[in-house]
């Protein structure tokens, strides 16, 4: 008999190859493999073709937003060239630069400006793009009828209660309602379909097995560690990536975002002159708390919008980002956790990996247990992410007194619980055995290996195990070659 294949299961460590060696990707490679990373708006702009960027620079508000996003050395070079009537010789530019760190920063800034087609380096001379130069001059000096910084409108009678405090509260509630839904807070309303689609597309949430319910992913938990501005850009970059699918001009979407970033908080703006694509954006962005509308004819930008490109502006405070709660967790060597917070979102995040025992007006008592960590691991949250969250939100007293910051006994145990979960995984497939010769065994085994379906082998007993998907091609190969 050439060989016998029997349905079976094999237990192996996840990520191991057919010879038992670990085949896991590094952290960075894992991110690339599953298609997400930490792309920023700067990375997104760097990837745009020259024609798209030139169209973008036609509007003064866009050039000002891009200028604000540049690194300091790049901004300095742009300002040096902005009012020069002739190109700047490269050797003259190099005279300004000191050796060492300063030189490296200038070189990085120059490369960034070239990628964005803001500066042209030709014949050893630096020239500022004419369209960028003219638009930035207009943005800084005023003039023109471009209306790229929005058209202010007067408050209507229905807007008497609209002020900065009200807009902050509205934006906070809108954004935190999405975060509450992500962490599964009890009673959290489901966002609109458009928001849910972006959460899934961003890999922040995915459908739970054997259920129509959405659950947070490992990427989603990492998302919770970011500041609000970074979180917003994560979502908005996914929104931008859908422009072709929705047949929307990406320049129109970027222009609207950059315009929002330049508006005045508390001021009402007209929506009547916006193109149709930007009106769609206006409706969509209201779901995230970027804008507030009391009438289809005008809108108010919230602090979430006005800080999109201006990092020096005062960010949205209160809720999960309040100053007094940046460090609110105390963790003891006996696994007990004390969280000095009354914020529902903070508590909901803790419940993802903590067994909550008691809640008071400004204090939550809990502990890290095997079951609570296993529940987090089942959602795709890693041990390192739990440790990172506890470190990021450690109470100032822990920072002042503890070295290392978190008790080693606790962090080691959390990692051990993760390894315990990953120790063994069952794989369905087929066991091949009873080969008549060692040559036949090696021939079929090598074929299975070439298909990447070989999970286990034992040459001494002439047996190997293949994944279920490899059964048919391996069986057909045996029939052709060994029958």
What's the topology here?
Elements: E1 4-12, H1 27-34, H2 41-46, H3 50-56, H4 60-69, H5 72-82, E2 88-89, H6 90-95, H7 101-115, E3 119-122, E4 125-128, H8 130-141, H9 164-183, H10 193-201, E5 205-207, E6 214-216, H11 218-224, H12 228-241, H13 250-262, E7 269-270, H14 276-286, E8 291-295, E9 298-301, H15 303-306, E10 329-331, E11 336-339, H16 344-350, E12 355-359, E13 364-367, H17 370-378, H18 383-392, H19 396-401, H20 408-422, E14 425-433, H21 438-450, E15 454-458, E16 463-467, H22 471-482
Antiparallel strand pairs: 1-14, 2-4, 3-4, 5-6, 7-9, 8-9, 10-11, 11-13, 12-13, 14-16, 15-16
Helix pairs in contact: 3-13, 4-8, 4-13, 5-7, 9-16, 17-20, 18-20, 21-22
Protein name: RNA polymerase II transcription factor B subunit 2
Organism: Pseudomicrostroma glucosiphilum
Region (Disordered): 1-24
């Amino acid at each position: 008999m050439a060989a016998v294949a029997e349905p079976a299961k094999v237990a192996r460590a996840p990520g191991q190859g057919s010879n038992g060696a670990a085949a896991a990707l590094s952290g960075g490679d894992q991110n690339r493999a599953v298609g997400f990373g930490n792309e920023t708006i700067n990375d997104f702009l760097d990837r745009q073709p020259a024609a798209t960027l030139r169209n973008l620079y036609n509007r003064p508000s866009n050039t000002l937003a891009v200028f604000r996003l540049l690194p300091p050395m790049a901004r300095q070079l742009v300002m040096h060239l902005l009012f020069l009537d002739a190109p700047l010789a490269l050797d003259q530019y190099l005279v300004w630069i000191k050796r060492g760190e300063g030189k490296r920063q200038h070189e990085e800034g120059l490369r960034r400006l070239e990628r964005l087609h803001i500066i042209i380096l030709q014949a050893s001379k630096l020239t500022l793009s004419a369209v960028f130069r003219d638009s930035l001059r207009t943005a800084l000096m005023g003039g023109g009828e471009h209306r790229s910084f929005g058209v202010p409108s007067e408050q209507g009678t229905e807007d008497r209660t609209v002020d900065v405090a009200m807009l902050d509260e509205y934006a906070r509630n809108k954004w935190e309602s999405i975060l509450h839904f992500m962490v599964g807070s009890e009673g959290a309303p489901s966002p609109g379909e458009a928001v849910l689609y972006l959460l899934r597309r961003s890999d922040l949430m995915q459908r739970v097995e054997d259920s129509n319910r959405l659950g947070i992913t490992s990427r989603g938990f990492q998302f919770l560690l970011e500041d609000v501005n970074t979180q917003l850009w994560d979502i908005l970059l996914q929104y931008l990536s859908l422009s072709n699918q929705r047949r929307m001009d990406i320049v129109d979407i970027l222009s609207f975002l950059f315009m929002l970033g330049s508006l005045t908080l508390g001021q009402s703006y007209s929506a009547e002159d916006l193109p149709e694509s930007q009106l769609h954006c206006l409706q969509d962005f209201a779901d995230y708390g970027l804008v507030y509308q009391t009438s289809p004819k005008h809108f108010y930008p919230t602090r979430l919008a006005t800080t999109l490109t201006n990092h020096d502006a005062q960010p949205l405070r209160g809720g999960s980002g309040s100053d007094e709660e940046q460090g609110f967790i105390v963790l003891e060597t006996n696994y007990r956790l004390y969280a000095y917070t009354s914020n529902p979102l903070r508590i909901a995040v803790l419940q993802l990996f903590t067994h909550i025992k008691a809640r008071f007006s400004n204090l939550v008592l809990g502990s890290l247990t095997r079951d609570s960590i296993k529940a987090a691991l089942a959602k795709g949250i890693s041990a390192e992410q739990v440790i990172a969250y506890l470190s990021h939100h450690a109470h100032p007293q822990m920072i002042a007194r503890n070295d290392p910051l978190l008790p080693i006994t606790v962090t080691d145990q959390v990692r051990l619980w993760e390894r315990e979960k990953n120790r063994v995984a069952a794989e369905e497939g087929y066991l091949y055995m009873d080969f008549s010769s060692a040559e036949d065994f090696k021939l079929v085994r090598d074929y299975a290996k070439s298909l990447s379906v070989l999970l286990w082998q034992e040459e001494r007993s002439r047996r190997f195990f293949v994944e279920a998907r490899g059964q048919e091609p391996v069986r057909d190969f045996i029939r052709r070659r060994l029958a």
